[in-house]
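Minimal example, chain plus 2-acetamido-2-deoxy-beta-D-glucopyranose.
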Amino acid sequence: MLVRLATVFASILLASATPSSVNAVEKRQSFPKMVFCHFMIGIESDRTSSADYDGDMIRAKSFGIDAFALNIDQQLGFAYDSAARNGMKVFISYDFNWWHIDQGAQIGSHLAGYASRPAQLFINNAAFVSSFAGDGVDVTAMRNAAGRSIMFVPNFHPGQGNFGAIDGALNWMGWPNDGNNKAPKPGANITVAAGDSQYRSALGGKPYLAPVSPWFSTHYGPEVDYSKNWVFPGDLLWFNRWQEILTLKPEFLEIVTWNDYGESHYVGPLSSKHQDDGGSKWVNDMPHNAWLDLAKPFISAYKAGASSPNSFITSDQIIYWYRPTLTNLNCDATDTTLVPANNNSGNYFMGRPDGYQSMQDAVFVVTLLTSPGQLTITSGGHSQIFNAPAGATAFQAPMFVGQQSFALSRNGANVLAANSLKDISSICICGIYNFNAYTGSVPANFVDPMGPDGLNRLVEGLHVQTCQPTPSLPTSAPPYTGPGGVPPPTSVSSSTITSQPASSTSRSSSSASTTPPPSSSTSNTTPPTGGCTITASEQIRPTNCMPKGCVWAGPPGQSTPDHCDGSRRR
Ligand SMILES: *[C@@H]1O[C@H](CO)[C@@H](O)[C@H](O)[C@H]1NC(C)=O
Ligand SMILES: *[C@@H]1O[C@H](CO)[C@@H](O)[C@H](O)[C@H]1NC(C)=O
């Protein structure tokens, strides 16, 4: 794949005799690398002022996101105002589930109303504008009505939209799929990289807006009229796709999404004010903020044109995620989808979401390390130890019901260790099949409870009475008492599933004879094991409240944040 892309690119470079290809190459080289994030405006109808957008703007910007792609026409003014106040950029991504392709002129004049606002993203003096779907919209009518230079980078599809009329294109499909909006099947297996390749060929030299998405899981039954129930393969997608991006080096990329809770691909806070799109059944207690932490060094590397995130990792962090229940847990008696529902879209399935077999029963971990260490993953009492090199590396271990713990040791003592706030459950939470992921990190991320608006449809359609529309994660985990700092009995390097060279074997064999008791680890190192240490204020955004039990070890000169006990904003 990559070889083929390189060949295509080389042939563009060589074909310098024709003016258009020279143009294409110049265009390709003259764009700053930019990171966008798709933002669902539609579920924000409970926001009452531009200030309600400030937390999202500030947080996204602090991770290197340049602009939000705003999807529909409610509240756009609030978002533009907040972005302007917070040094962010925004642009409109016309959602053609809302707009119609015969509305080119209306879209152009609608755009004109926003493109003059201070927060509008401009690239090379053209107002940037994108879409979801929209093949066939009259681009000339749109440009004329906009009355100014626009850079139109829509989600047209190769073979369907007219790529001659546009300035670049967004590929939405950030998930491996079967070509029919479902998980891959034997004989119908389209990787995200294959999509990249299709788009690159259709675009010639025009800029490519590439997707990066962590997950996809949705489980709507008859409680809504758009019933849909499927997953795309998640697992290590987020890590692998970021690695792929650093090789692909697209002109722009779009994180899909900030706040689409219903499809479980949000990376923004649960506590950001929003209405319930009906997804709270599988989203409550399932923060995804640690995924944004994972993305941060990759975003920096992408913008710098680097092919590795490693030199952008400035402190040690363990990022982890897993589903809340095992695949074989049977929820048929209480799940919401075991009855007929609207299947006009062809996306409704009964029981476990379509494609669930494409996911592994595993706990996934990415270490972001400044120097090598030993990672211990303990899932439901089963521990595995891995050698983790400096840089970003992915690991996985089989998942078991019970407590989930993560520790990093160096020289026989833990330097990071904590239990997760969320156990893997042996019961069907809220009675349903939930294939969303819980994410966490050591040191701990900020506590991120969903607000009441985000939970206001949670009980709709549930078959159990035991599920309350309130957050239920504890704010701190019990102290870590598990292993770590104990040399591995045998090398487990074969479980390391990254393409990076595993440094496992020599290290583990050389240290295999010493066995310090696990408790010795607590006496030693800076971050207290079992507790939590906050080293940067961005770890506790957007609330800026110190989680209970956490200690502040931020940069000198910065004041200690409040614990905000008893009350929290949003
Ligand atoms: C699809 O292809 C990927 C990558 O080649 C492979 O890992 C996966 O198992 C395939 N899935 C199916 C259902 O064939
Ligand atoms: C919904 O339609 C799709 C496509 O026709 C089909 O594969 C699926 O089995 C249907 N779901 C149900 C529950 O009948």
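The radius of gyration is 24 Å. Confidence is low (pLDDT under 50) at residues 1-29, 485-534, 538-549, 563-570.
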